[in-house]
Design goal:
Number of helices: 19
Strand content: under 5%
Helix content: over 70%
Distance between the termini: 46 Å
Number of strands: 2
Order of helices and strands: HHHHEHHHHHHHHEHHHHHHH
Number of domains: 2
Largest sheet: 2 strands, antiparallel
Radius of gyration: 26 Å
Structural class: mainly alpha
């Protein structure tokens, strides 16, 4: 218990020190500002929001890699810190939208001070909700958190008419679109791997043919993804050009990668665990690139309102686009890194291991779905959430595992009519087929089910009831409780998604009344 208290104290101390240093910088470096103390407070809130983004949202990018054992937790944190910070600093852009997603009409705000209070309330309300969601172990969308904050503060300031309800309707639609697309595409990739590799007699030979193609496809997806999301604020690349560059690059990469895969396969066997090793390095690259793109895009959720307030204080004008000073970008990048390093592990473990069991092929399928869905969404102009896509992918993989296991488990029903002397031979043959078709996590369950099936068949031959030992009963009880998808996690996460916008809106609206009363009096 003392150890836990020490760890909590250590984390809180780092966070508080970071915020104090932000305030000191503003007070010393911006001492000529008319409201320097207020700006110092705003910057601290921005840093607090950035830490919460790091603690909650980054888990979606590295959690599957950690859960699959492709990366250790420490290695994942180091990679995420480097690439999230790099994405924020190198590709975060020089200008940011002050009214996230255009959800409120800035023309209805005629007072600069009111605009500043709306931005501050939205930022603080979104950050508080993210903090609460992280404490509850629920991965939520940071974009939706700030969207809810802006909406709630805007309504509190001017009324319901300020909200662009058509835009809010599209955002609400993404609650369904994002996870469904993420789940379907992740499941599709995993099914292809299962069908084309693991369901074959010689899995290693099939892997030599299929894995280079899958890596080339991954290259195509991630180059397009980075062009559309990762570097869009630095270099503008249209959709067709991005597809062409990605297509050419993936074509060349296929011929580069194939000899390496064949050479690596020389030291591997037909076991699933060995085939999984071929996906480890691609999975690490995928996690790093997802972090880079996330840092480039979602840092705006923390620094956007800060940049808007800073520009409003400097110029006295309300603008829908604000330039980002370097110090603001550094606050966002460092905040994400600190939040990830201190409180990120909790959500990384949730995404990586508490929803469903992951190995490298499953985690790779989830990473691919994250990139593919963003590409599809960009093509059709659909609003999607990267958080919802990734979590939907995890659930999609889990439910596919359950479906495949149930499908092949049912084949044992065909041995019911066999004579008692044929049972052992038939079940041995069936077991070999099953072990080739299902994953490692299911093998223990399979062995126990075989014991149960033998007892059932023998009892039916002799008549009477099945008689299990206490040990067998205990193991069979565990089977009933064990699920391929933890349903309690599904319920908790969906609930958190549904209440993100309303709760952050309520918090921001309440904070607006408090802030306007305090600073306006």
């Amino acid at each position: 218990m003392k150890h836990l208290n020490y760890q909590d104290f250590y984390k809180i101390t780092i966070g508080v020190l970071f915020l104090v240093l932000i305030a000191l910088y503003i007070l010393l470096a911006k001492s000529d500002m008319s409201q320097v103390a207020f700006m110092a407070f705003v910057a601290m809130v921005g840093g607090y929001m950035a830490m919460n983004i790091g603690a909650n949202d980054v888990a979606n990018n590295v959690g599957p890699a950690v859960g699959s054992k492709a990366l250790t937790l420490l290695a994942a944190i180091i990679i995420a810190v480097i690439f999230e910070s790099s994405g924020a600093l190198l590709a975060g852009g020089d200008v940011v939208s002050t009214i996230k997603k255009g959800i409120i009409d800035a023309s209805l705000i005629d007072d600069t001070q009111v605009f500043i209070w709306i931005m501050l309330s939205a930022l603080l309300g979104g950050a508080l909700w993210l903090n609460l969601a992280t404490a509850l172990g629920a991965p939520v969308s940071t974009t939706h958190s700030i969207v809810g904050g802006v909406m709630g503060a805007g309504i509190a300031a001017t009324g319901w008419n300020i909200v662009n309800w058509a835009t809010m309707g599209k955002i609400a639609a993404s609650w369904v679109i994002s996870p469904v697309l993420g789940g379907v595409i992740a499941a599709l990739f995993l099914y292809i791997i299962q069908d084309r590799i693991f369901h074959k007699e010689n899995t290693l030979e099939e892997a030599k043919k299929i894995v280079p193609f899958l890596i080339a496809l991954m290259s195509f997806a991630f180059i397009t993804y980075l062009a559309l999301k990762g570097i869009k604020k630095v270099i503008k690349i249209d959709f067709k050009t991005a597809l062409f560059i990605a297509g050419m690059s993936s074509f060349v990469l296929y011929f580069i990668v194939k000899p390496f895969i064949i050479k690596a396969a020389e030291h591997l066997s037909n076991e699933r665990s060995d085939i999984n090793k071929l996906f480890t390095l691609p999975l690490i690259f995928a996690a790093a690139l997802l972090c880079f793109a996330h840092g480039a895009n979602d840092v705006a959720n923390a620094i956007g309102p800060v940049a808007a307030i800073y520009e409003a204080l400097e110029s006295g004008a309300i603008t829908t686009k604000a330039a980002i000073p370097l110090w603001v970008m550094v606050v966002g990048a460092l905040g994400i890194a600190i939040g990830l390093a201190t409180y990120g592990p909790k959500l990384i473990k949730t995404v990586g291991s508490e929803i469903t069991d992951l190995d490298q092929t499953r985690a790779w399928s989830i990473a691919m779905s994250s990139a593919i869905v963003v590409i599809i969404a960009s093509w059709f102009g659909l609003p999607v959430s990267s958080t919802h896509i990734a979590i939907g992918g995890v659930f999609g993989v889990g439910y596919l595992r359950y479906y495949l296991y149930q499908k092949y488990e049912n084949e044992v029903e065909g041995v019911k009519a066999l004579h008692i002397t044929s049972i052992n031979k038939k079940i041995t043959k069936w077991r070999k087929k099953q072990e080739r078709l299902i994953d490692e996590a299911a093998k223990e369950e399979l062995e126990i089910r075989i014991v149960a099936k033998k007892a059932e068949l023998k009892t039916k031959q002799a008549g009477g009831e099945i008689d299990f030992t206490k040990k067998e009963k205990k193991k069979l009880s565990k089977i009933e409780k064990k699920q391929y998808v933890r349903r309690e996690m599904l319920i908790k996460i969906i609930t958190a998604w549904l209440v993100t916008v309303p709760i952050s809106a309520f918090m921001a609206g309440s904070l607006y009344f408090l802030i306007s009363w305090y600073f306006g009096s």
